[in-house]
Every structure is written in structure tokens, then in C-alpha cells.
Amino acid sequence: MTWSLLGIVGLLAADTLRRVYGAGRTLNDHFVAAVVLGCMGFYALQGFASPVGWLPAWLAGALGIWGLFFCIEGDQPRGPWLRWGLAVPSQLAYAFALWGGLVWLLRAPLAWLLEVPVLWAGPALLPALALALLGTVQARRRAHRVTRHPVPGLPGRLVQLSDLHASAVMHRPELDPLIDAVNALRPKLVVVTGDLVMPFSEASHGYLIEALQRLDAPVVCCPGNHDLPVLEQLRAELAEAGIPLLVDEAVQRSGFHVAGVNFHWVEARSKLEQALAQLPAGEGFQLLLAHDPRLGAWLPPRRFQLVLSGHTHGGQVAANMLGVPISALRLMGVRDQGWFDERRHYVHAGNWLVGLPPRMGVAGEIAVFDPAEDPS
User: Fold this and answer.
1) At 127, phi and psi to the nearest 5?
2) Helix (H, G, I), strand (E, B) or coil at 324
3) Which of 145, 236, 361, 371 could form a disulfide with 321 if both were Cys (CB 3.0 to 4.6 A apart)?
4) Can you give the pLDDT of all 376 residues of the chain as single tens digits?
5) Long-range pairs for 50-54 at CB < 8 Å and ≥24 separation?
6) Do the bridges between strand 338-340 and strand 306-309 make them parallel or antiparallel, or are there none, so unpaired?
């Protein structure tokens, strides 16, 4: 029975990797493949070492890892059976594998010293399961939470979206409620700070363009890392819909002078300096869209009145569910979510619902910025 489980997990892992690399072979795809193998390895390891009665649980976990990529392929929305039967539970499967793997790594040396079973973590996995459940449920339950922020000098209500990651599991059933919620806020301007698409939606994402066209206010975007492979195509499609995708350029919209910069994995600081040197000066409230939050620390102190970023998904693994906006990325010095630089730079938690790595403890948001009196 145990060896049969290992064989099934092996087949699921192979098919998942086939789907991952069917979308691309970039550095990001290699990272995703490593996460998939690590999570599959966790379920295989526990299945090999645990009592037979636990085998269905480990098989369900492996199916969850595979299920995300089974659901995410294609350009058609997934029906409720697939979304709620495979895609949504996949987030718990990934979360438990990541927390459980951490528990196992911390426990294994001590177990070896005490001469107790090393491979089977047993009851020590219960805290990992609790964290995975709490974090996953919180992220799903508050998916479209509205966060409100007063900003002095703002010429009108501004709404920020980010990291939409359009796909078969971030399709019309997920985008339509988001767009309706934004329209209900009656903003003067809507901005999207990058990662509109992902490898599984690069070829066909007309539903995303249609969703953005449904916004009642003018829309301005900047590119993210996932947009780079189809940057010119996406830029042309958005332009045809009347939506500028700003690549080191600026536009005037609704009293805002909106600048947007491109995403760069390497030499990001020097590329930013080059972009700033060529950006035209404009009238109105000075707003910068920069997908990469690293750029906030490198900007001239008075060049922009507000800087908006995304990319970090709120830190990915955070304690927001406990009322503390601290994430794993923040502990590593990354600008993960919320305000920085004395409330000049805001990092958005993203809007995608289902993906990898899974959201754990931090929900998406609709960030609303309203005019406020200048405290000075």
C-alpha cells in the first residue's frame, strides 16, 4: 500500500511538472517546480513513514498539489466543481506541506538525537495543520477587503489593484465581483500595479481586458514581472481598450500626473535612475506606479507625492489573521504590505485568490486612497 502511494505521488509529481514547464521555462518556472517537488516530497515522505490509516490524507494532499495546475491551465473559467473541489483546496494542500515541512526540518535533528522515528512527524504536525487552516481560511474569507488610507493633497478618490494574475482560476467568476466592488466605491482613478497576466494566460486573456473596461473610472497600469514575456502584446491590447500600460512614461489623468516604470530583476536601481531621468514633468498630483517595492527605497525623497507597488502578495505568509501585519518577507527586510517611508510608499497585498505560493494569513485587498487635510 505504501509503495503504491509513492508510485501515485510520483506520477502526480511528473504530470504537475509537465504542466508547469508547459507554460514556460524561466527562472520563475524553475522556482515553482522546486516548490511543487518539495511539497510532493513531503506527502510522499510522510506517507512512506506513517501508519497505514494516514495514507488517504497524504494522497489527498498530493492530489491537491497536482489539482492546482490541472485547474489553472487554459483560458476558460473553471466551473464550481473544479474550483471548490480542486483549486481552492489546493491552497490548503500547499500550505500544510510548507508548514509541515518546516516542522519536520526542525524536528528531524532532535528526533535523531533522541532515537525516535525521524521520518514520521506524527502529532507534531497538528500545529502545522492548524496554521495552514487558519491562514488559508482567513485569506479566502476576506479576499476583497477594502482598506482605506487618507492622503494629503490627493485630487480625488484613488483605488489601487495589483497582481491580478489572470488565469482559469482568476477568471470572470473572480474578476466580476472585484470590478463591481471597485465601481461601488466611485473612484476618480483606478491603477493596477502590475502582474496582470501569468504564464497560463499569456496567450489569451481577453476576459481580463473586458473586466478592466467595465471599470467606470479611468484606468492606468504598470507592468509586473509576469507581464514581461508579452509586454508589447499586452501594451497594445490595453491601448486599444483605452488603458495605458506605462513603461517608463507618464500620463495625465483626472488631476493626477501618473508615471509608471518597468520591472527589472537585475540592475533595477540603475534602470530606475535611467527611467526617472527621461520621465517628463507634469502638472497635478505626482503619482508613481512601480510593481517592484524595492524601488521605493531608491527614489528621490520629493520626486513623487505617492508611490504604489505590489509584487509581494502581502508577504505571502503573514500573521494578519492574528491582527499583526508581519510577514516572512518583512522579517527578511522586504517591503511586504502597507505603508513605508512615512506614508509615501504603499505596497499592495495583491488581488489573486488561488495560486502558488498560496496565501497564508494575508488576504487580498482593494486599497482606497482618499483626500485628507495636510497635517502640516
Assistant:
1) -60, -35
2) coil
3) 361
4) 566 777 888 899 999 999 888 877 777 788 889 999 999 999 988 887 777 777 888 889 999 999 999 998 877 888 888 888 899 899 999 999 998 888 877 776 666 665 666 666 677 788 888 989 988 988 888 888 999 999 999 999 999 999 999 999 999 999 999 999 999 999 999 999 999 998 888 888 999 999 999 999 999 999 999 999 999 999 999 999 999 999 999 999 999 999 999 999 999 999 999 999 999 888 889 999 999 999 999 999 888 999 999 999 998 888 887 788 888 888 888 999 999 999 999 999 999 988 887 888 899 999 999 998 654 4
5) 50/120, 50/122, 52/1, 52/2
6) unpaired
Reduce the DSSP state of residue 85 to 3 states and report it: helix
Distance CA 170, CA 222 (A): 19
End-to-end CA distance of the chain: 71
Cell of residue 150, nine digits:
487618507
